[in-house]
């Protein structure tokens, strides 16, 4: 690789600092994976509160669902059982009280208190309480709620009753479901209180779960009613639930963090692979302006004068030089050829003043430059550089799909004074037709034909025919890829004088070209 200036090699070290070492992909991957994990910790801390509230809401809904079910069952009992009682605690009454259809998970005991005194229940003739125990809740209303007495440290239970003709039918409600319900998703996280709706000093409160939660500072509560609007429920949650919620948030946060981290790592490697793919590399190369011209002289074999140069694209990458054969077709396919030519042209235009006034530089273009006003816009952008010094080579190796537009574009540029050469003449699509339609007056004879000189290859006749055609139609001809003096001589004998090839010089960077030109002129003026 050629550097104009040695300081290019160590741009940072030369200023006395050490270059920053880029972080390795593995470390970066680890970092990308761990960052979301670490970030999930404070975030889950923040989410603990709202999550606890949500869990409290969910629990309330569960309790409400259970209450609705109890309501439905009780309703069913009142409708079907009530009308069939004889109110004598006889066989039919006992059968009804013990009928499994009316005896279910929400009802612990059911019984009758007779107007005449005494009564019976699903337990037999024993009564869980006496009528006297029912008031003051059991006032004169037909339907009501009362409570059992708390005896022997048992919990009080709610009693629903129905009064008909002085008799009372009652159902001791089974609230054991609430115990199970309050133990999920964490134990001792909830406290449920229920009691009659009308608040009064005498209305008892039925506690379920850990009552200390209610006393906790900052505990939250939700109140709601059963479907009859008879019983008020208040559900409490405090530190235990918040702790549990935080734990859950941390748990899911870590999983989520791991998932996000994995995605980030995957995205990073995907991006890295893309950037390392040819397209990505080319785009990065364009952004870093790595595409530069090398110049190969074209020499008039009669006068040994350098008449012009072909600008050949080189990709200066990582200390090496990549020839266009490795990427130009792909760049064209990916529509990157336009910015590439633009970058090259910019450099060529900047270099033009450093060449002798009579010398031109020829830039390779493709059909796409002419099928839209791309080339025209490029030249306009650069203020129409001198057409005497800038020419273009259009290859016939690839077809022009929109020949009409190409004709319009070429004509417009020719009117500006620009010249076009048909490159690789004879190797591709309709060379003669292109010459005619595009009004091109210069052809480049491909190396493939030059190589046949001195051999009996069939293609030699193509070379001879091409030269004959060029001479007859007054075309300017440049022979490419000329490597030996023997070829120069043959071409000269046949009237082809403009020679480009290793026999004279390879493509070179401008600095090297200037040195080559100095030596060339020294040799060739002293010869004369
Ligand atoms: P091309 O336009 O036919 O260019 C001539 C090629 O022959 C160049 O190859 C040149 O280095 C090589 N060459 C010249 N003299 C000799 C010789 O005596 N012997 C041998 N063996 N080779 C010689 P390079 O530079 O690798 O370019 C290859 C092709 O890439 C070019 O063929 C051209 O079609 C394309 N190309 C180069 N630069 C550009 C550009 O800026 N734009 C476009 N669209 N295509 C370009
Ligand atoms: Ca060319
Ligand atoms: Ca060529």
**Ligands, deduplicated:** ligand C2E, calcium ion
Question: How much β-strand is present in the residues?
Answer: 15-25%
Instruction: Describe the largest sheet.
Output: 8 strands, mixed, barrel
The backbone outline, from C-alpha atoms, is: rod-shaped
How would you classify the quaternary structure?
single chain
Q: How many extended strands?
A: 18
Neighbour order of strands in the largest sheet:
10-11-13-14-15-16-17-18
- Overall mean pLDDT stands at 87
Q: Catalogue the unreliable spans.
A: 1-19
Helix % is: 40-55%
Helical segment count: 16
Radius of gyration: 49 Å
Determine the structural class based on helices, strands and strand pairing.
Answer: alpha/beta
Distance between the termini: 35 Å
């Amino acid at each position: 690789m050629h550097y104009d200036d040695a300081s290019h090699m160590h741009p940072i070290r030369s200023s006395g600092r050490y270059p920053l070492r880029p972080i390795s992909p593995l470390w970066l991957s680890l970092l990308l994976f761990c960052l979301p994990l670490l970030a999930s910790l404070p975030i889950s801390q923040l989410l603990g509160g709202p999550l606890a509230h949500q869990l409290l809401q969910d629990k309330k809904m569960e309790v409400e669902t259970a209450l609705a079910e109890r309501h439905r069952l009780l309703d069913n009992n009142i409708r079907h059982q009530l009308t069939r009682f004889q109110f004598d605690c006889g066989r039919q009454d006992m059968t009804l009280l013990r009928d499994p259809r009316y005896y279910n998970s929400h009802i612990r005991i059911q019984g009758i208190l007779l107007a005449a005194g005494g009564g019976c229940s699903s337990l037999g003739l024993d009564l869980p309480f006496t009528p006297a125990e029912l008031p003051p809740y059991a006032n004169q209303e037909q339907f009501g709620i009362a409570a059992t007495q708390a005896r022997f440290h048992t919990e009080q239970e709610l009693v629903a009753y129905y009064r008909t003709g002085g008799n009372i039918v009652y159902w001791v409600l089974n609230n054991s479901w609430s115990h199970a319900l309050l133990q999920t998703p964490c134990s001792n996280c909830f406290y449920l209180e229920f009691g009659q709706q009308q608040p009064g000093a005498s209305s008892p409160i039925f506690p379920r779960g850990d009552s200390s939660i209610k006393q906790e500072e900052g505990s939250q509560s939700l109140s709601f009613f059963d479907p009859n609007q008879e019983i008020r429920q208040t559900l409490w949650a405090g530190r235990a639930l918040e702790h549990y919620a935080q734990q859950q948030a941390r748990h899911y946060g870590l999983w989520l963090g791991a998932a996000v981290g994995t995605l980030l790592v995957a995205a990073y490697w995907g991006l890295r692979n893309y950037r390392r793919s040819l397209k990505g590399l080319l785009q990065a190369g364009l952004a870093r302006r790595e595409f530069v011209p090398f110049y190969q002289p074209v020499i008039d074999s009669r006068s040994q004068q350098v008449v012009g140069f072909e600008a050949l694209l080189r990709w200066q990458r990582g200390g090496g030089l990549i020839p266009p054969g490795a990427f130009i077709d792909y760049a064209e396919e990916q529509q990157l050829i336009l910015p590439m030519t633009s970058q090259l042209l910019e450099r060529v235009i900047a270099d033009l003043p450093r060449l002798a006034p009579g010398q031109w530089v020829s830039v390779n273009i493709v059909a796409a430059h002419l099928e839209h006003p791309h080339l025209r816009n490029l030249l306009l952008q650069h203020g129409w550089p001198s057409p005497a010094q800038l020419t273009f080579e259009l290859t016939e190796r690839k077809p022009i799909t929109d020949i009409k537009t190409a004709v319009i574009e070429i004509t417009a540029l020719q009117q500006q004074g620009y010249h076009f050469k048909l490159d690789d003449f004879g190797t591709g699509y309709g060379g003669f037709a292109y010459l005619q339609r595009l009004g091109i007056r210069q052809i480049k004879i491909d190396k493939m034909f030059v190589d046949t000189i001195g051999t009996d290859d069939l293609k030699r006749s193509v070379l001879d025919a091409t030269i004959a055609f060029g001479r007859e139609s007054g075309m300017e001809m440049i022979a490419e890829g000329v490597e030996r003096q023997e070829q120069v001589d043959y071409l000269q004998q046949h009237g082809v004088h403009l020679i480009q090839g290793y026999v004279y010089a390879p493509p070179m960077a401008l600095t090297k070209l200037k040195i080559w030109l100095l030596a060339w002129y020294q040799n060739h003026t002293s010869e004369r």
